[in-house]
Amino acid sequence: MTDWRREFAEEARSERPDLARLCLLVCAVADPAVTQADLDAAEIELDRLAGLVPYGTHGADAWVAALAELLGRRAGFQGVPADYQRLESSLLHEVLRRRRGLPILLSVVWMEVARRAGAPVYGLGLPGHFVIGFGDPAELRLADPFAGGRAMTGTDAELLVAGATGEALDPSMLRPATPAAIVLRILNNIRAWASTRPERSDVALWAVELSLLLPSHPARLRYERAELLVRRGDFLTGAAEMEAYATIMDAVEPTAAEEIRRHARAARARLN
């Protein structure tokens, strides 16, 4: 049996992580029925779509128009509010099949097709909504794949951020997102989906565990994993994870560390 998690960890820590490959490995962990043939088929579909991009496309505005025509209008990739309620909206192979997904997954499709076609493309993780850009990031030639590839201006981006946070757009928000940052955000979305569905703690657990395999991740995810293990009945492992995290917290928040140890003792007590 293929060890998808090991492959995910190796890809995530490689010198130049492949975004599509990482997203497809998430799919393989999420669904035991997924095979290598399914992952290959998804890559082939991305290649096929890239081959349909008009040859000789040049310039950021032309790339925005060409990808919106191909992926938004002809192929029908776009999003609707109901997509936020479906786990499939965060799984690349399902997004390629359904032509529906969350903004970040649709952006992955756009970026991977555009990259294969030779476009200078990047992703922008704006608060509350992921979009893509073409050309020099300073020029802000943006598109919203969730809206079928609608072209966006810098003012549009400012309004989007203001609507999501009530604050002004910070220049740091316009830095192109790395593959690891994109995948972490995808896994965060999956964890958020599972958090409102207690019966799907299995999904929350594998999403946390994949996040922990990324080179950079919030340290608190270790405590979240411990809580999930306890919730799923693995009291000893969960308690041990809590105590390990408490040791890390001792240097920065000793009061919080003691509270975590209290939770660890309570988890062990559930075995008696």
Automatic annotation (TrEMBL):
Signal peptide: none annotated. Pfam families: TPR_9, Transglut_core2. Residues 60-188 form the Protein SirB1 N-terminal domain. InterPro entries: SirB1_N. Belongs to the UPF0162 family. This is Transglutaminase-like domain-containing protein. It comes from Streptomyces roseicoloratus.
